[in-house]
Design a protein that fits this description.
Layout (H helix, E strand, L loop, with lengths): L2 E6 L6 H12 L2 E4 L18 H6 L1 E3 L12 H17 L5 E4 L2 H9 L9 H14 L1 H11 L1 H5 L6 H14 L3 H4 L12 E7 L3 H18 L1 H11 L13 H8 L5 H26 L4 E3 L7 H11 L2
Parallel strand pairs: 1-4, 1-5, 2-3, 2-4, 5-6
Length: about 300
């Protein structure tokens, strides 16, 4: 069976560095599995690979969309599968890395056969959201699919919008779609799943340090660019960690210190949710409990796991 290496971990766990080192040893490529690193013009705030990283090894599916586009898991999965198959054709083992649970789960376990939602339906739901509010959309979902509504927080805008889009376009309950068996895009693949799960206190400190470093490297210029583009705040790129908070500073609504404090809080909360999902929902072949900083034993264990 052809192999795929999946390296997952919360933000600031060193997973990208590990992916680069593994891909170099295998003479392969690193494939992105992060829902924010797919966007152009925000490489600092999204922690996308640097120019130096890209010189070390080939990176794919990074910075492929304009920030004005709404990326989605189905589109990403189709692109990822195509890149994996190209590497297989060259007798190479793909190295997929990221921390977006929905993307990782879709790659390994498959996706529901929900059809792609057309742009006009997305636009209509967005107009309803802007005109009538989130509570209106939530009630629309609840009236048409009480089962799925019970599983949604009334404040979870992303999932409420998604449910409303599916209901409006397909006329079928979301809960009914989820009863249909998942479709695996790579049923022939043998996944070697590697998790990095450092102590949450270590991750939190690294998140704080990294946000300060991002500002030093020019993250505010990226936020200024987004502000100039007048991109809708409902789009995914505008919700990247640090973007909403630093945007408030750019607009003069708070101090930089206040913006960074909020961004650090939200980043820590996100990293905690990531770690919980990875710990409880993602079975793995190998689990490392410390941040990757170049430990040779990590590489040795991975190489051992790849042996026939």
């Amino acid at each position: 069976m052809p192999k795929v290496i999946v390296i997952a971990g919360p933000t600031a766990s060193g997973k990208s560095a590990l992916a680069i080192d593994v891909a170099r040893i295998l003479n392969s490529a690193v494939l992105n599995c992060d829902s924010m690193q797919i966007y152009k013009n925000i490489p600092i705030i999204s922690a996308a690979p640097s120019y130096e990283d890209k010189k070390l090894i080939e990176h794919k599916l990074y910075e492929i969309y304009e920030c004005s586009k709404r990326g989605n898991v189905v589109e990403w999965l189709n692109l990822c599968v195509a890149e994996i198959q190209k590497l297989w054709a060259d007798n190479k083992i793909p190295v997929v890395v990221g921390g977006t649970g929905m993307y990782i789960d879709a790659l390994i376990n498959g996706i529901t056969p929900i059809p792609e939602i057309p742009t006009d339906i997305r636009t209509e739901i967005q107009q309803r959201l802007e005109c009538c509010g989130l509570e209106f959309l939530y009630n629309f979902v609840r009236q048409n699919d009480a089962t799925i509504a019970q599983k949604l927080s009334p404040n979870d805008k992303t999932r409420i919008v998604r449910a409303a889009e599916i209901l409006l376009y397909t006329g079928k309950k979301v809960s009914e779609w989820y009863k249909i068996p998942l479709i695996k895009k790579l049923p022939e693949a043998e996944f070697l799943v590697i998790k990095i799960l450092p102590d949450i206190n270590v991750i939190e400190q690294r998140c704080r340090d990294r946000l300060d470093k991002m500002v030093e490297l020019g993250a505010l210029k990226e936020i200024e660019y987004l502000a100039q583009q007048k991109i809708s705040e409902s789009l995914p790129a505008m919700k990247a960690l640090g973007v909403p908070e630093l945007m408030r500073f750019i607009k003069g609504e708070c101090s930089l210190e206040e913006a960074l404090s909020e961004a650090k809080l939200h980043t820590r909360q996100y990293a905690k949710r990531q770690r919980t999902w990875l710990k409880n929902k993602l079975p793995a072949n190998i689990v490392f409990n410390n941040v990757y900083t170049g430990q040779s034993e990590y590489i040795s264990e991975i190489k051992q796991a790849l042996l026939p």
